[in-house]
């Protein structure tokens, strides 16, 4: 199971005070641990009471139902000062005290993993994250993460979120490549977090979708929540129930092909899987997005009808979603800065194949990414 499937919102700011427990276990974002290692949280529930194990599963990143139940059974969760049971009901304004499990290492190990560093100064860095890389260590992925690589390449990283999220300001899905912002010191980290929280960071993604978007540009609005039957997936909902949160994405078609669309997407909120879920909700899911299409690659035969099997080959072996651009006001210099990450080679090769073999008769005028 992909540990990042249980992460909180992708662009929610990763800002919190570092508590005693933060250096030895992955903290719950936004909830600092006290000196005794316990985290306090006041429940905010929009509907009727929720089972405690379900509530804990949604609160703690990378948490499954079984792990939530184990944490509760070990006495690590108190409701209004009393040990909770899995079936206990959590009501609005209940005070919870939680002690998350301890990871196997006291801090992430620095690993010599190649990184493309787009920019760095004394306060921050911008990195082109490769696909198939988890952002920070968590259950099932204690090594090989972006944080492990950052610890090798940068002598100093912000510790505002503890060692396991050192320097991480925001997140990208495991299989999403592209621009990601890193903080080297705490004040800059805090200021960047505020920019994300107040939606003052411009983000643009490049995506290739199945299906043809009929409008040249439009907004996709729809609250996003965990799928009730598959907790590794999200879904659009019309009702504000459960953990549903309002979400909005703006898109501009860059190029159309027969059966496919190359599109630029600007998420105006930062929900988990937001772009992937929003595009799927309008009938144009991201190419090779296994979670929402059941396909994990794009083959040459999908571009060329009747291609002999012996000549077939994979063009795209990851989801066709790339964080292309970030623009924001540098918190220390006050200058507006913009950074881009070029499209990965397999993304470019797939577009080239579609342009050659599935051209659209009336392409959209305008720039290409």
Please describe what this structure looks like.
With 369 residues, the protein is of the alpha+beta class. It is built from seven helices and 19 strands. The chain has helices at 52-59, 65-73, 146-153, 186-197, 274-281, 290-293, 345-357, and strands at residues 39-42, 50-51, 77-79, 82-83, 89-90, 95-98, 116-120, 124-129, 177-183, 202-210, 217-221, 223-226, 234-237, 248-257, 260-267, 298-299, 314-316, 321-329, 336-340.
Structure summary:
By secondary structure, the protein is an alpha+beta fold. The protein folds into three domains: 3-98, Structural Genomics Hypothetical 15.5 Kd Protein In mrcA-pckA Intergenic Region, Chain A; 116-196, Pseudouridine synthase, CATH 3.30.2350; 203-357, Pseudouridine synthase (2-Layer Sandwich). It contains seven helices and 19 strands.
Supply the key terms.
369 residues, alpha+beta, Structural Genomics Hypothetical 15.5 Kd Protein In mrcA-pckA Intergenic Region, Chain A, Pseudouridine synthase, 3 domains, four-stranded antiparallel beta sheet, 19 strands, disordered N terminus
CATH class of the largest domain: Alpha Beta
- CATH level-four homologous superfamily name of the largest domain: Pseudouridine synthase
Poorly predicted segments: 1-9, 15-26
Shape: globular
| Tally of discrete structural domains | 3
Oligomer: single chain
**What is the residue-mean pLDDT, rounded to a whole number?**
87
Please describe the biggest sheet, giving its number of strands, its sense, and whether it closes into a barrel: 9 strands, mixed
How far apart, in Å, are the first and last alpha carbons? 33 Å
């Amino acid at each position: 199971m992909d540990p990042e499937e249980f992460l909180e919102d992708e662009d929610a700011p990763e800002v919190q005070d570092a508590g005693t427990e933060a250096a030895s276990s992955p903290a719950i974002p936004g909830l600092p641990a006290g000196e005794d290692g316990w985290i306090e949280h006041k429940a905010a529930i929009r509907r009727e009471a929720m089972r405690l194990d379900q509530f804990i599963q949604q609160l703690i990143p990378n948490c499954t139902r079984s792990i939530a139940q184990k944490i509760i059974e070990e006495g690590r969760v108190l409701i209004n000062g009393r040990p909770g049971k899995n079936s206990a009901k959590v009501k609005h304004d209940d005070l919870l005290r939680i002690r998350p499990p301890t990871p196997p290492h006291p801090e992430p190990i620095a690993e010599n993993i190649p990184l493309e560093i787009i920019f760095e100064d004394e306060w921050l860095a911008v990195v082109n994250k490769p696909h198939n890389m988890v952002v920070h260590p968590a259950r099932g992925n204690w090594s090989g993460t972006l944080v492990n690589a950052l610890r090798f390449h940068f002598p100093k990283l912000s510790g505002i979120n503890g060692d396991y999220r050192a320097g991480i300001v925001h997140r990208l899905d495991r299989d999403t490549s592209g621009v990601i912002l890193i903080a080297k010191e705490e004040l800059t980290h805090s200021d960047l977090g505020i920019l994300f929280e107040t939606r003052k960071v411009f983000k643009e993604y490049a995506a290739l979708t199945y299906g043809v978007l009929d409008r040249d540009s439009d907004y996709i609005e729809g609250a996003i929540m965990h799928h009730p039957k598959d907790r590794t997936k999200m879904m659009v909902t019309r009702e504000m129930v459960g953990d549903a949160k309002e979400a909005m994405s703006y898109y501009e078609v860059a190029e159309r092909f027969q059966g496919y669309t190359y599109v630029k997407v600007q998420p105006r909120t930062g929900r988990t899987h937001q772009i992937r879920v929003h595009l799927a909700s309008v009938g144009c899911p991201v190419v090779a997005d296994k979670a929402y299409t059941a396909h994990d690659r794009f083959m040459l035969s999908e571009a060329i009808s009747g291609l002999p099997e012996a000549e077939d080959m994979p063009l795209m072996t990851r989801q066709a979603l790339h964080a292309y651009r970030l623009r924001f006001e540098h918190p220390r210099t006050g200058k507006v800065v913009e950074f881009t990450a070029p499209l990965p080679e397999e993304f470019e090769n797939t577009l080239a194949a579609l342009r050659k073999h599935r051209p659209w008769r009336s392409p959209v005028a305008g720039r290409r990414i």
